[in-house]
Amino acid sequence: MTSKTKAMNRTVSYSPENNEESDAAETAPLLGNLNHECQAEDKETTQRRGRRLFLKRCFVLASGLFLIIVAFTILQLGVLHQYVYYFYYKKYLPNITYTSQDTQKSYCNSSANATSEAEENLQNKIQVLASQFMVYTSLALYIPPIFGSFFLSTLSDTYGRKPFILIPIAGFIIRSTLFVIGIYFELDLAWFILFLLLEGSTGGLYSQITVLFSYVADITEKGDQRILLLVIIEVIAGLGGLLGSLSSGYLIREFGFLLPTFISTMCIFAALLLLGIFLPESLPSECKSRSNRLNFCSKFKGVWEFYTSNKNGKGTRWRYVCSLLIFLCVQFGVLGRVTVETLYELNKPFCWNSVLLGWFMGLRIISSYVIGLVLIRVLQCCVSVEFIALIGALSHMGAFILEAFAEESYELFLVPIVSFGSAMVAPIMRGIMSRMTPPDKQGTLFAGMGMIDSFITIVGTTVSSAVYSATVTYFRGFVFLMFAGISCVAVILIIVLWVAGIMGGASAMRYQEEEIIVTPQEIDKD
After folding, report:
1. How far apart are CA 526 and CA 520, in angstroms?
2. Which residues, at least 6 apart from 230, have a Cβ–Cβ distance to it below 8 Å?
3. Cβ 169 vs Cβ 153: under 8 Å
4. pLDDT for 49-84, tens place per residue?
5. Which of 422, 399, 425 is nearest to 481 (CA)?
6. Which of 26, 115, 444, 464 is 20 to 30 Å from 501 by CA-CA measure?
7. pLDDT (tens digit, 9 = 90+) per residue, 185-218?
8. How far apart are CA 346 and CA 343, in angstroms?
9. How far apart are CA 463 and CA 469, in angstroms?
């Protein structure tokens, strides 16, 4: 007697010792059972879709609160930067009142405004000391999240996403409260480095964004919608940075340093309460790791298994590696250009002041994030995401070439317009890697990318500053040509990934769940 195999991912009971029951089972009507199973599966699918729809609506609330958190966090960093100048002016030039109006001047003509050579030397010393302190703040902000992002994101695969979205926000509140105390009592600047280290130990902004990426992966299917939501998170972070940067100067001018810091702290605290009350957990219980023992060595090893093995499917390793290299090449320019770009614009022949710098930053964010988001939404209907990433990488490279040879201010203002697609590449690469990854490893994947993001921020800033310092005397735009060359590598790799997707089909770029087929012979062996 033979029995047909059922490939519906359920256990098949088979008892060869009872032939009568077996024969009865053979002659029993199968349609009723199949209908019952189909109804159960339809009900489960409907519940899953309903839950995801509810989570997406909650994600809208979380996105708005995330915008507020990013904006006020960047605002406080802007307050810190201007407070540093105030601190050093008060220390070395006690007879001169420093106000935010000093930031409106162009430093190209600072020597003409100096009342004496000694005063000019002190102002230059203040510039050097403030710049050095900014380096220390960057290290305090970005080194701890390299490890904090890893721990929080990987733990989110075990305990869920929500706790590890809230922990970095709690770190913001602790640091913000200490900022209020430090500004009120005018503490030494070394204390502010300690405050930033405390925030970094809770993961910081990078960790929160990384866990939010995992949250998006939980509430979306493996497809273009996930990539779109990942882009939306990038857009929200960019808009929050724009609002915080532009508002800090005006608020300081009207209210000083203390009141904006205190109000922003209260707003972040309110956002934490709202998220704690209304944000539901996105990770289903069946997707959480079943082991209660935390082996961080194995979790750290799991971060790199994506790039060293084919455990997630045949041919996935080289696609992970290729996507990661594209991510590195693009982010190196995006994160490394910030410091040198400011120095480049303050230097001759442009001699910009903080107002022009603010408008330039605003135009870049609007062009890269808002226009980029619209283009992704429109182009997804007719082309693949790999092709959209190619357009973004080409615009990224072209903008650096234009910036390297710019001689007039209007040419610099064309740079953000040309780089309209630069912000699209990183979230698309995250989305491509996410759709090749099983649900229970999303946090581990984004943990590794968060670590790399923090590391690239430090390396990109250091390398670009060193190259700019070494080449500014004979070709001040050389550093941007270096960024363009690295972006060219990303363009080539995206073409390889795009062609591989066309040849292999859509399924080659997605994680495939294996169906378990149970046969009576296998049950007899057990």
Report:
1. 10
2. 213, 216, 427, 428, 430, 431, 434
3. no
4. 777 777 878 888 889 999 999 999 988 988 887 888
5. 399
6. 444
7. 999 999 999 999 999 889 888 888 889 998 988 8
8. 5
9. 10
